[in-house]
Amino acid sequence: MSRFEELVQKFKQHGYKMTPQRRAILEVLTEGIHHPTAEQIYEQVKEHLPDISLATIYNTLHELTELQELRELDLGHGVRHYDISPEDHAHQVCLICGRIEDIPADFEAVKSLLQCSEGFHPMRYAVTIYGYCADAPSGE
Ligand SMILES: [Zn+2]
Ligand SMILES: [Zn+2]
Q1: Which among 19, 89, 81, 97 is positioned nearest to 56, based on CA atoms?
Q2: Residue 45 · residue 61 · CB < 8 Å
Q3: CATH code (residue 127)
Q4: 128 C-alpha vs ligand 1 centroid, how far in Å?
């Protein structure tokens, strides 16, 4: 099952109707650019559904977040990015071009490095590494 089909199932299981709007947003999230902002999703969905509103985009993103299928990424520059990947991973962000890439992460190892308080059960990890990508001009 593709990630898209998986999410359609998830919506149905939770009693959401598969409207053309929800379907189009899922398509953009699973097949469009990685880590889009809400505005980027809006621009892409509008090509197929010109009447869609930004509010509908935000509502659907919120539903997916509630279903724990979508992660919001706050990279500290005031715009939220969205990540539909089901796998645990960290991000590397280029300080010059802003490119965001997924990097594999062993969160069990992170857990052993960072001592949580006793009785605390970690559920989610958000790790972002900032730096300069290979295309950035090197040297100071
Ligand atoms: Zn870069
Ligand atoms: Zn990601």
Answers
A1: 19
A2: no
A3: 3.30.1490
A4: 15
CA of 31 to the centre of ligand 2 (A): 13
- State in Å: Cα 23 to ligand 2 middle: 21
Closest ligand relative to 33 C-alpha: 2
Q: Are residues 77 and 94 in the same domain?
A: no
When pLDDT is cut at 50, 70 and 90, the band that residue 23 belongs to is very high
Which bound ligand lies closest to the C-alpha atom of 84? 2
In a domain, residue 98? The reply is yes
CA of 94 to the centre of ligand 2 (A): 14
Domain that holds residue 44: 3-83
pLDDT at 138: 64
Beta carbons within 8 Å of 80's beta carbon, 6+ residues apart: 37, 38, 72, 73, 74
Ligand 2 centroid distance, CA of 85 (Å): 6
> pTM here?
0.85
Residue 140 belongs to a domain:
no
